[in-house]
Amino acid sequence: QTTGLKRLAVAENPHERLRILYTKILGVLENIPKEAAYRKYTEQIVNERFDLVKKETDVQKLQDKLNSGQIEEVIVQAENELSLARKMIQWKPWEPLVEEPPSDQWRWPI
Amino acid sequence: TVRPKNEVEQKQLCAFGEYVAEILPKYIQQVQVTCYNELELLIHPDGIIPVLTFLRDHTNAQFKSLADLTAVDVPSRQYRFEIVYNLLSLRFNSRIRVKTYTDELTPIDSAVSVHKAANWYEREVWDMYGVFFANHPDLRRILTDYGFEGHPFRKDFPLSGYVEV
């Protein structure tokens, strides 16, 4: 039993782990204002994946339905998304533009 | 012969560019797709780390690989250096370019905390152009000689240099 990838151990009980991670992400997203596009799209992605995880109990079929590599990779991706959501709360990227560039900055050819 | 236009890929890149611009309006100043199907995001320099972490961690944009980090010198502009990051997504097999600007004295946040690969690339940009990276673990010369003065890739540095060899 091996993932075939280096430094990624086989995950026992991946459904439980994914359930915990997705509930944590949704909890973190509650702290972002509702109109932010990041919250909308991330909630959409997380809810889709969460529904698939809840419905499908077989690991192999779940991997095929998610179509995103091995289950362990899906777990890693969910952990990344969680850390990103926590950082987004500090950075607040949904606010309007910080500063306009000088008018000739992005003109090409000069 | 003329390179055939791939309309489907163009549309997908445009859609993805609009998606990213909608999520990060605070830092993205412009989004463009070249005719050769290359997506470019033009960023304010404060937003490098947020944008790079977003592109690395978000599920719809897993750009885990930093392929290149360079700078372009355009002396006629107010912010003469343009820092360019090329990212590659292995999951979705697509590339993206992130561009920022700075002048000679303003430091830029180091991308090492996001992509370890940026270490030597930033040392090279410091050595060749003189762009200082804040929070870099070890910023020193990498390609020029030990006592070398000046930044060779700048447009006002002469071709045969200042010192006779």
Automatic annotation (TrEMBL), chain A:
InterPro entries: NDUFA5. One of its GO terms (cellular component) is mitochondrial inner membrane. Signal peptide: none annotated. It is a peripheral membrane protein. The keyword Zinc does not apply. It comes from the Eukaryota. Complex I is composed of 45 different subunits. Accessory subunit of the mitochondrial membrane respiratory chain NADH dehydrogenase (Complex I), that is believed not to be involved in catalysis. Complex I functions in the transfer of electrons from NADH to the respiratory chain. The immediate electron acceptor for the enzyme is believed to be ubiquinone. Belongs to the complex I NDUFA5 subunit family. This is NADH dehydrogenase [ubiquinone] 1 alpha subcomplex subunit 5.
Automatic annotation (TrEMBL), chain B:
Pfam families: Complex1_30kDa (PF00329). Core subunit of respiratory chain NADH dehydrogenase (Complex I) which is composed of 45 different subunits. Interacts with NDUFAF3. Interacts with RAB5IF. Found in subcomplexes containing subunits NDUFS2, MT-ND1 and NDUFA13. Its main location: mitochondrion. The keyword Transport applies. Core subunit of the mitochondrial membrane respiratory chain NADH dehydrogenase (Complex I) which catalyzes electron transfer from NADH through the respiratory chain, using ubiquinone as an electron acceptor. Essential for the catalytic activity and assembly of complex I. HAMAP family: NDH1_NuoC. Residues 43-162 form the NADH:ubiquinone oxidoreductase 30kDa subunit domain. Belongs to the complex I 30 kDa subunit family. It comes from Peucedramus taeniatus (Olive warbler). One of its GO terms (cellular component) is mitochondrion. One of its GO terms (molecular function) is NADH dehydrogenase (ubiquinone) activity. It comes from the Eukaryota. Keywords: NAD, Translocase, Transport, Ubiquinone. It is found in: Mitochondrion. This is NADH dehydrogenase [ubiquinone] iron-sulfur protein 3, mitochondrial. It catalyses: a ubiquinone + NADH + 5 H(+)(in) = a ubiquinol + NAD(+) + 4 H(+)(out).
